[in-house]
Amino acid sequence: MLMSPSVLASSTSSGLNSSLDLTQSTIGYAAIGIFVVAYTLVMLEEVLKLRKSKPVLLAAGLIWIMIGYVYQQHGNIDVAQQAIEHNLLEYAELLLFLLVAMTYISAMEERRLFDALQAWMVGKGFDFRSLFWLTGFLSFFISPIADNLTTALLMCAVVLKVAGSNVRFVNIACINIVIAANAGGAFSPFGDITTLMVWQAGHVNFAQFLPLFLPSVINYLVPALIMSFFIPRTKPDTIHQEVELKRGARRIVGLFILTIATAVAFHAVLHFPPVIGMMMGLAYLQFFGYFLRQTLPMSLAKKKAIAIANNDEAALKRIGSVVPFDVFRRVSHAEWDTLLFFYGVVMCVGGLSLLGYLGLVSEVMYTQWDPVWANVMVGILSAIVDNIPVMFAVLTMEPVMSMGNWLLVTLTAGVGGSLLSIGSAAGVALMGAAHGKYTFFGHLKWAPVIMLGYATSIAVHLMLNSHLFHQ
Questions:
Q1: What PANTHER family does this protein's entry cite (predicted)?
Q2: pLDDT per residue over 28-53, tens digit each?
Q3: Could you state, in order of their start, the residue ranges of all structural domains in the chain?
């Protein structure tokens, strides 16, 4: 039997009527089982060496096949079609937004901006404690623009290059980077996918995220201060390296800032989705890429003349290996596994919502519980399960909450992932980058200290922004 006899008509959070309540049906239980198996495989990504997008893409297809079959049996296929189109639109907006952001980050990487920053930090001769603070602060302040995953990987590369075989320092420094990158991403729509989702859903506008700045700083500083006492003041062996920025590197940073401003303006002034502004920003990069290609021969001729005049053979060799800038090559370097994983999550959670499960969870968490405690629990849950499906589930439930509570769930979902190394993309990536030096159990030892920062940041938000909870 595919359904229990008590299949009821209800309305879903997407505003669709005549949906079926399948929470007590065989189809419902099977969908939950498929999602749990798929997500278990996602969590075991590092062990199985299986990319996280694969299981959720398959799970999404299977869940919607079952939904389509049942709705067709009941002559309600239009409702399922509307639901799937609604979820596809949600995904398309976020996909294009993230694709443009990732393309810009890839372009900056290709123009050697991150290499130059890394070489500067490595060559300055900082002691271990100074390096700990520097990588933490830079992670916190770069992640609101460059996203927490890219930032964490950049800083981890610096730590690995400088620390060498000092496993203890690498572990603590990586924990510090993960906390800082996640905290820095919590107050900016460009820093974390969950914050971006809340902004695109229209619950919080761009400027209204600013009250989260101080709670985010506290979330980072509390554990960082405690951990810093366990770091020696000795100096590592310094490696000096010269990195020459490629042509147009600084101008690409300027174009990225202009793109962010365009996206914000589209949302704030015209009330259009921010993704329209981001796609316009991609055109800025494309035109600049065209300019770089067209002026390349003239630029190379000038550099060649200078190199010959100075008898600089190394410069002549570099000129011979210059590759023209190609925007579409940068697009191909986007994190496609993450983008496809995100599709699978959106479609799985959308399917579970249509089956009625998110309505049940919402009823318990946001009606029977105090919303503050529900949002604190969202953060703790995001340490175990990736924060993307957790936040998408909350947005799909559409609980009626004050601005203070929407900011609270943005904060907790963003920083809650720092509690465990598997709780955020930054943590998982660093376990791979610093394999054997930064580990799950190495992170777990500092969990009480990180939890203290988590609790303190929530307390600071509740105290400083108390007026936002009474709207």
A1: SODIUM/PROTON ANTIPORTER 1-RELATED (PTHR43269), SODIUM_PROTON ANTIPORTER 1-RELATED (PTHR43269:SF2)
A2: 999 999 999 998 888 787 678 888 88
A3: 20-92+335-416+447-470
